[in-house]
Amino acid sequence: MKTLEIAVVYGDGIGPEVCQAALDVIAAALGPDQAILRFTECKAGAEEYRRSGIAYPEESFAGCRRADAILHGAAGLPGVTYPDGTEAGLDFGLLTRFRLDLYANIRPIRLFPGTASRLAGKHPGDIDYVIVRENTEGLYAARGNGVVLRDEVATDSLVLTRKGTERVVRAAFDLARTRNGAPADGKRRVTCCDKSNVLRSYAFFRRVFDEVAARYPDIEVDYAYADAMTVHLVERPEHYDVIVTENMFGDIISDLAAATVGSMGMSPSAEIGDRHALFQAAHGSAPTIAGQGIANPYGTILSAASMLLWLGERHRNETLTRAGRAIERAVAKTLAEGKALTRDIGGRASTRDVVDAVSGRCAPTQSVMKNVLS
Ligand code: IPM
Ligand code: MN
User: Fold this and answer.
1) How many domains does the chain have?
2) Is the CB of 212 under 6 A from ligand 1?
3) What is the number of the ligand 1 atom nearest to the C-alpha of 97?
4) Which of 251, 278, 283 to mutate to test the pocket of ligand 1 (most atoms within 8 A of CB)?
5) How confident is the model at residue 180 (pLDDT cuts 50, 70, 90)?
6) Residue 161: domain span
7) 94 shares its domain with 54
């Protein structure tokens, strides 16, 4: 088995802490098989911009493009902006999405046993769905290309293509086929979240959604307007299985959704294209708590687990698949035991406490056994 290259971008704020936490857990899960992965740091983010005047050096992009997968902490610092007012540190995530065509942003929302929802009366088992956020077009396509005219008029265009919509909707239906359906009724369901009642672009999105859906007669089709969706995700999250939506709506509802399962710190993501993938938590760089060792690393650790699963499948490597599953199980077990809850989810654990607890529960089985099995 050849060594796989992982580009590591630590980023800003709590980024380096949660990223290191994930790397430590990966090391624990791989145990004696460490050499399967080689990690190379690539610099990018707001600090890098402050230091060098370039937020995302070409060399770092080349490193990310060369790598078999990318692991990221978090980027961006308020106030570190371009002359147009937008944040420089966000270039890393956004340009990587665009340039490596990472079109499906997979964001699982799950309330783990041992953690509490902020929604009254919702318990583990009630909330378990995935937001599939279109990740390369929509309103975000305008990044860096909006127009401000005479300081009087400002525009950013929302761009949807048939190809871009089809492929992300397909990803959502394919994902639904691998799941057990919605908690409420066990039905496999894909919900199209849009504003097709108001804008042509979204009506187009829904039309393409319907065309793709027709090829998946085994999956129930469902619709919600994005504004109403914010209410549904609070009132009846158990109805949802897979939700597919435009880039900006996906950004907004994934924060709301994360809050319903405890905290932004609990929300992983996997940003996947046909050839490349980027793994990072869905949260930001939380500069106000950076450097204190208290950041919640579960989102990044779960993202790292999905990286191992993605690599394991792609390269038909059982060791990686096993390590990815072991991390997921170890996270669930740690939380269920009420161990290592960080402040944002009602405990007092430090980032390090989480790493130790999860690492201790995901060490590989005896390598002798593994050699027998593989
Ligand atoms: C996310 C983040 C990013 C986004 C930022 C950091 C560019 O909020 O991944 O949801 O807006 O997409
Ligand atoms: Mn976001």
Assistant:
1) 2
2) no
3) 12
4) 251
5) very high
6) 117-261
7) yes
